[in-house]
Structure formats: C-alpha cells, structure tokens
Amino acid sequence: MSNASPLLSVERLTKSYGGIHAVRGVSFELRSGEILALIGPNGAGKSTCFDMLNGQNTPDTGRIRLLGEDTTGKKPREVWRLGVGRTFQITATFPTMTVRENVQVALISHGHQLFNLWGSASGFATAEAGRLLDLVGMGSYADRACGELAYGDLKRLELAVALANQPKLLLMDEPTAGMAPRERIDLMRLTARIAREQSIGVLFTEHDMDVVFEHADRVLVLNRGTLIAEGSPQEVRGNPQVQAVYLGEGLVYDERHRKGASA
Amino acid sequence: MAFYVVQFLTGLASAASLFLVASGLSIIFGVTRIVNFAHGAFYMLGAYIAFTLTEQFSGALGFWGGIVVAAAIVALAGVLVEIVLLRRIYHSPELFQLLATFGLTLMVEDLVVLIWGPDDLLGRRAPGFKGAIDFFGQNIPSYDLFLIVLGPVVLAILWLLFQRTRWGILVRAATQDRDMVAALGVNQKWLFTSVFAVGVFLAALGGALQIPRDAVHHAMDLRVIVEVFVVVVIGGLGSIVGAFVAAVLVSELNAFGILIFPKISIILVFLVMAVVLIIRPWGLFGKAEAPARRTPGLTVNPWRPLTSGERLAALAALAVAAALPLVGGNYALTVGAEIAIFVIFAASLHFLMSVGGLASFGHAAYFGLGAYGVAFLAKMAGLPMILCLLLGPLLGCVGAAVFGFFAVQLSGVYFAMLTLAFAQIVWSIAFQWVAVTGGDNGILGLWPESWAASPSHFYWLSLGIAAASVIALRIAIFSPFGYALRATRDSLLRSEAVGIDAKRIQWTAFVIAGTVAGVAGALFAYLKGSVFPDNLGISLSVDALVMVLLGGVETVSGPVIGAIVYKALNIWLVSQTDLSKLVLGAFIVVIVVVFPKGIVGMLEAFTQRRRPSSAKSSLVTSPIESAE
User: Do the domain assignments include residue A248?
Assistant: First the structure.
C-alpha cells in the first residue's frame, strides 16, 4: 500500500442539466484504505457525483483518475474492470437467480468467462463465491432465491457482489438506506473491517449522521453542487456553515434561543 | 418533374391513413402501456364496416356518414374489448399483452372472412372527390388531395384535444405517471377506456378512409400493423407529432422507393429505420426512457439442471419417442417429425425470450432463412443433403447477426416491434424477389436423399437433431454464458456494474437462437419438400411464441412440452375446422388470461406446494448478527 499517489482523484468535476448546475467544480482525493463520506442535503448533487465516478453519467468538464488512469467518460463496465465495486441506493441484483449465482455472475465476468458456452456455471468458482458470502455473513443463504431476500440481506449480497472483482475502490450509494438501525451499524462495521483489512478505498453517501460520524475517516459536504467543507468528522460537525445548510436552521435557532434565554 | 411531384403527393395521401392508425397506437400506448397488436384488426374492421354502410346508404351523407359511423361502431367494439379483456391484463408482462391482442387479431381475421367472404371488395368513390386534377399532364385523384389536407387537420385536432381540454391534460399526465394520476383521484378505468376508444376510432377511421383508394381484403391488418410499427419506431412511441412526421417519411420512401428498387422497395424503409435507431434508439420524437427496472416476472423460481433421475426420465421419453416407427403409420411419422422440428424452433425462441428476456415477434424469419438456405444450396448449388443441412442454417445465422445487432439496441415492446418489422421485411423480399425465391410459388422439389427419404428415417433424423439441439441449448443455459444472459435479463444496471457488456451478450444469444431456428427451418424444408414465403411469416413467429408461453415462459423445459402439445393440437384442429384462426386466437387469449404460467409452470407450482416449506420460513427470520 503506497500513499504516494491517491487511489482516486477528482478534479473540478462539473455537470449541469439545462440551466441547473447539479455539480460545480468538485475536487477531492481518496487514498487506499480510507473511508470517505460524501454528505449533503437532498439535491446537493451527491448522486450525480456518484454516477459520474461510476461511469453512469459523463461530466461536462473535469477529470477523474483512478490509480493514475484517466477514467473520465468510461462506461460502468470499463470502470468495473479497473477495480471499482459499486452498490446502489436501491439494490440492483438478479432476482431470479440464487444468492450464490448472483456472486458467481460477477466472478464469471471477473474471470473473463462470459462467452463460455460449454462449461458448467454452477460449479464455477464455488469456493470463492462461498468465501465472499461468508465474508458478508450470507453463507447460509447461498441457495436461496435472491428475489425472496429481506432488504437488509440484499444489501449484504450487493456488498459480496461488489467485492467479487477484488476492487481497490468501493462506491456505495446510501449503503444503509431502508435498513433497520441495528442492520445499519452491522453493515457499516462489516464494510469498514473489510476495507481496512484489504486496504480498499471506500466512498459512500449517507443521510444517517450516526453512520457517517462513526465510520468515516473523512467527510465531504456538498451543497448545491459545490463542496462547502471537508475534513474529519469532528471538524465537519463543528463547521457552522455545515450546520446551517445541512444540519438545519433548527439547530441555529436553538442556540440563539438558548443564548437569549441565558442573557 | 411533374411526375415526381405527383409521386410525392401520392405519398402524402398514403401518409394520412397511416398517421391516423399510428397516432391511435401511440395514444393507447402512452397511457395504458399496451402495444395494441389488434390495432391493424380494428383498421381492417373499420374498412369492412364502412364498405357495408356506404353500399347501404346512398348520397354524400350516406358515404361520409357511413365512414364516421363505421369508425364509431369499431370504437364501441374497442371499448368492449378493453372492458372485457385488457382490464384483466394491464399488470401482466408486456409480452402477454402483445400476445393477447394478437390472439384478437387472429379471431378478427377469421370473423371478417366469415361475414364478408374471402374476396377483395371494391368500395365506392367518395362523393365530391370522384375526379382527378390535371397537373402538367399528370393526373392527381382529387380524393388524394382531400387526404393530404386531412392529415394535418387531424394532427391539429388531436393537438387541441390534448393541450386544451381537461381530458387531454389528464391523458398527458397519465402518460407521464399513471399511478400518480390515479392517486389524485382520477378514475383510471374510465380514462383508460376512453383513451382506448379514441385510439381505436382513429384506426378504424384510417381504415374506412382507405376504401375509395384500395380494395378491402382480409390481410390488410397485418400489412398495416407492420407499417405502423415501423412508423412508431421511427417517430417515437407515444409521440403524435412523431407519428405524423414518420408516417410522411415512410409513405414517401414507399412512393419513391418503388421507382428506385421496384422489387424490394421496403429495403429503403428498413435502411432509414436502421439509421434512425442507431442515432436515436427511442425514435425521432420519442424520449429516452430511464433504464427500467425489470419486473422479475410472475415467479422467482431459480433454475436448476435436471437431476439424474429426471435425466433418466427424459432419456426414457426419448426412447419411447424413438420407438414410434414400430407402431405408427406414415402419417403419424410425418406429424412426429414436424413436432420434433417445432420443438427445435420453440427451444430456440425460448433461449432468446425466456433466458434472455428478449421476446422476438419475428423469430420465423430465421426459421425461414434456414429453409431458404437449404433450398438455394440444394437447387442452385446442387449440394448433397448433409451439407445443405449443415450450411443452410448459416443463412439464418447471418440474418440473425444483421438484424439482431439492431434489435438488441432496444428492449421490451420496441424489441418486439422491431423484430416483427424485420421478419416482415424478409418475408417481403421472399415474396417479391421472384427471380431468386420464386415468390409466392416458392421453391419446390426439395426431397431428402434416399438415406433419409423413408418416413421412419426422416423421423429419426428429426428426432435426433431435436434432442441434440435441446441438449445443446440446455448446456448453454447452464453455462457461464447462460448465467450472464440471465443476468442481463434480470438487471441491466447490475450487469453493467459487474463488467458485463449486455448488448454483446444479447446479440450473441440472438445469433445462437437464429442459427438453431435455421436448423429447424432446414429440416422443415426437407419435410415439406418445398419452401414458401409463409415459412417466415408472422403466423409462424406467433406459433413459436404460443408454444413457449403454453409450456411456461419461466421454465427451462417449457418449450419442449409446449411445442408438442401445441403442434399436436394445431394439426388436429386444422383437420377439424375451417375456422382454425378463430379457435387459435381464442385459445391464446384464454392462455394469457387464465394460465399465464403455462403447463410446466403449473406443474412446478403444484409439486412445490406439496413439498414441505419449513426450510424457507426459518431462514427468513434468521438473525442479522451473522454478519459480524
């Protein structure tokens, strides 16, 4: 693991839809093994940013480098081949296939066997598929139909699928959205552990501040398409600008109110 | 010069009718999301009823009144269809909706012959537009001028209807988000019914207005529906302006294409459609739809290879089938060979449609190309039968490679319409290019060589190739490629996010399916001893769809069972009744509405219900702590 060059570097990313500037000049870097949270109120441009990193969307201007390679405007599957795993805000899995088959598809793709018409897919990399499922605690579900899973389990399955190509970077769009509080903590602890062990860089967006402040090494705050703050969870938490736009006016009002009361 | 102007005006006049039908289809699709295959049938009914009414009532009022009343009558019939049939299938997968409306089309085709007879009918000239206008020595029928004016007038009326009335605003809102409109308290049932009535009215009016120009006949529905599909694919499904522009474009291409390629003018339309699809896959005026999350379908039942016991059972069934020559006569063996051939055909479509989620409505094109491939090789090159059987299907392979490349750029109903249009284009070429294909007379005298000539030998040959094809396709289904193909069907978003080039996977599947269909067609050519354009016709494509559907679209073994049951039933039916289309159409409608899971799907559901389900329920509640 070298800290010399960043895993991901984003330079002055810009995207607008018609007259609306969804993302304006966003720049940041991400190192291997680092967990970086991208937060901001609804409509701040988080998902647009994410989709551009993943290749689902093309920036108007700016540059994205992954391990020194320019990936700006590359297709999602090309970005994946470079070692980027992705989970979605609303899970995307293969509902008519079993849990193990879901992982096997990713492994088949990773092993360049997509056009193999003859071999048996059910026997393909079963050990590796089992290992990945065990890693996320889904080993005992391997033969279940994916379409029958509870939502929290789908999120864990997505994580196993995202890890199948031994990624260097994980992009997780609201990884804990729609989960029960206990599940959120478990999933993020698991993600953090895997990221540290395998020195994978993680970029995630999140609305749950408990999750963000507990797990993120660093936090980026986006508002109206612009980065307004960047730093450790403590720094960001204490930033008045962040409090105003993100944590809400209510807090500000509360403090004034209290000051007024004590005066 | 004047000649070209006249040709241009003729094209514009043809566009009017095409626009009416296409706009009706677009409006219905926009709101109900149903691609109404029966639209051509409503067009045809409009023409027939208008013919009867205008013959019955004389004078200008009799004519114009007859045309409008005919369209209104057909619209009422449409309302009936919507209430009785469509309301039951709004939530079914789109494939089922297409098939149900196709079933209606088949029924109408037989009904029309039953009521009006099989002969072409020549309608009255329009009062007030009987003559022609002289244009620098060229004649322009004044009725054409009337139609040229009518097209834009209807466009304007529709525009006002949608922009200026409360109903139009509701329809536009429902086009964007029908659930939201329903949540706002609008009676959706009434809205859907009224939209369907307007769409059908436009189709019937388009048909009725054709009677002074063209003969009324019982095949006009399929001809117009293919043109309309081409129009809406070019113009963009859901856009009325798109329908108008594309109708003009297609009609002009037809009008001038006849001058350039008199035999195969439809090629020109195809080329334009291909170019449009490459540049704008959603049509000139259509909007790019967000990548839809596919509904998993009716069941989530993971596929698995046969167990060793089931393999033995399949082998035993094959052995029993191979023993047929011991007991059956020549007729039984010929029927048996035909069923075996259709098992191959159905299995090839199943690979594309069930495994790949790409429901082709023109799969017969590749079946027929295989058959023509054999005919060319045997009759022109004089190759021995074994070589013809090996090389003939390659024509199906090439056809699938060319058309498949464009078709997989689209999905869902667009894919279905495009494959149908391609099949119809191949059919037109076979029909019109008489010098090479023999046209309607086909290519005759293709008999198997002596080693395969006896009915029992040919039966064994067909059975053997069928068994080999089905096994090969099953191996492919459970191969890494098969997994990747199912992955693209289940979730395009996830497939692309794990490095799968979905279009290339789907294209490969299309080529495989087309080649295997070509194998079936090659055998079929030898079975019948001849090749005809009907071997790549729409009804054959639909036969294949019904076989897969009857067996169970979400099962692995469905097509084999479906093909055997359907083909046996079909052969028996044709021997029993003249109204086989009517019965078949009703049969399709019943399957879609009552048995959407098919035979094998029902059997699977039955055996699953009997199996104890304790293993499942305990897992659902298993604690989440295992993640740590």
Answer: no
| Predicted model pTM | 0.85
A242 within some domain: no
Which among A81, A120, A144 has CB closest to B478?
A120
Q: Which residue do the tokens 């023999």 mark? A: B438
Contact check, Cβ <8 Å, A140/B619 = yes
Distance from CA of A180 to the nearest CA of B (A): 10
Cα–Cα dist B559/B541, whole Å: 14
Both A174 and A162 in a single domain? no
Residue of A nearest to B483 (CA): A105
Q: What's the maximum distance between 2 C-alpha atoms anywhere in chain A?
A: 81
Do both A189 and A115 map to the same domain? no
Tell me whether residues B497 and A80 touch, CB distance under 8 A: yes
Q: Which of A101-105, B353-357, B549-553, B615-619 has the lowest mean pLDDT?
A: B615-619
Q: What is the pLDDT of residues B189-247, one digit of tens each?
A: 888 999 999 999 999 999 999 999 889 998 898 888 888 988 988 998 888 999 999 99
Contacts of B497 in chain A (CB under 8 A): 54, 76-77, 80, 86, 88, 92
- Partner-chain contact B628 A137, CB within 8 Å: yes
Place of tokens 């102007």: B5
Q: Name the pLDDT band for B516 (thresholds 50, 70, 90).
A: very high
Which is it for strands A20-30 and A201-205: parallel, antiparallel or unpaired? unpaired
d(CA B20, CA B569): 38
Looking at the structure, do residues A16 and A46 belong to the same domain, yes or no? yes
Do A77 and A43 lie in one domain? The reply is: yes
For residue A74, give its domain range: 1-83+167-234
Contact between B302 and A113 using a beta-carbon 8 Å cutoff = no
Amino acid sitting at position B10: T
